[in-house]
């Protein structure tokens, strides 16, 4: 069937457009297909990594209950190095740090806690790690280092614990007024029925020069 002049011109334009953009269109479609396949592969890989990390984390918890510190430490190291993007890594490092503190290996515990601060995306876990690291530094008499951690932004749900430890550090620095202020905040943030209120009250009275007798 013959084409009129206008139809022939449109056909020629389409042919010309295909010559100019055909490779681009095919390339774009190929990229889209590859991207989808890549996403499927990534999703499958992430699921597999999470399953492997979960199994390793379970073994770590079992070792922690029986106080097998080396196994706990090694398992946590594997999780942070190979499965650092999973939620299990930071939790494993936190458990390992607690185990190493109990085993009087503060050096290893500090490395594990610092890993959490540097790599975790969860504010709550980072806040717990910072609190534990500050406690270690306080025990090692690095008062300024401990205070720096406590003064950094943290999850408000831990404000009572942060201010309690801050009060201890400030009292050790003979900053009695600042220590009192910290203890008062700790009491304000602490639940009314917490048995720990009595402990903080005793410390508050001590820096205030109030006798308990």
From TrEMBL:
<dbReference type="InterPro" id="IPR018704">
    <property type="entry name" value="SecYEG/CpoB_TPR"/>
</dbReference>
<protein>
    <recommendedName>
        <fullName>Ancillary SecYEG translocon subunit/Cell division coordinator CpoB TPR domain-containing protein</fullName>
    </recommendedName>
</protein>
<keyword id="KW-0812">Transmembrane</keyword>
<keyword id="KW-0472">Membrane</keyword>
<keyword id="KW-1003">Cell membrane</keyword>
<dbReference type="InterPro" id="IPR026039">
    <property type="entry name" value="YfgM"/>
</dbReference>
<keyword id="KW-0143">Chaperone</keyword>
<feature type="transmembrane region" description="Helical">
    <location>
        <begin position="21"/>
        <end position="42"/>
    </location>
</feature>
<keyword id="KW-1133">Transmembrane helix</keyword>
<dbReference type="Pfam" id="PF09976">
    <property type="entry name" value="TPR_21"/>
</dbReference>
<feature type="domain" description="Ancillary SecYEG translocon subunit/Cell division coordinator CpoB TPR">
    <location>
        <begin position="15"/>
        <end position="208"/>
    </location>
</feature>
<dbReference type="GO" id="GO:0005886">
    <property type="term" value="C:plasma membrane"/>
</dbReference>
<dbReference type="GO" id="GO:0044877">
    <property type="term" value="F:protein-containing complex binding"/>
</dbReference>
């Amino acid at each position: 069937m013959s084409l009129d002049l206008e139809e022939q011109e449109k056909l020629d334009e389409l042919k010309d457009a295909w010559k100019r953009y055909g490779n681009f269109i095919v390339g774009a479609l190929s990229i889209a297909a590859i991207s989808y396949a890549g996403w499927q592969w990534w999703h499958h890989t992430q699921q597999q990594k999470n399953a492997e990390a979960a199994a390793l984390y379970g073994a770590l918890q079992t070792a922690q209950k029986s106080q097998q510190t080396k196994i706990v430490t090694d398992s946590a190291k594997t999780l942070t190095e190979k499965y650092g993007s999973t939620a299990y890594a930071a939790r494993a490092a936190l458990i390992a740090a607690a185990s190493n503190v109990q085993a009087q290996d503060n050096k290893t515990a500090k490395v594990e806690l610092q890993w959490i601060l540097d790599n975790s995306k969860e504010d709550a876990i980072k806040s717990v790690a910072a609190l534990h690291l500050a406690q270690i530094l306080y025990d090692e008499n690095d008062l300024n280092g401990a205070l720096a951690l406590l003064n950094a932004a943290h999850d408000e749900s831990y404000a009572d614990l942060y201010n309690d430890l801050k009060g201890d550090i400030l009292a050790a620095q003979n900053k009695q007024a600042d220590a009192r202020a910290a203890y008062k905040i700790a009491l304000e943030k602490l639940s009314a029925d917490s048995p720990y209120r009595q402990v903080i009250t005793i410390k508050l009275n001590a820096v205030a020069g109030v006798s308990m007798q």
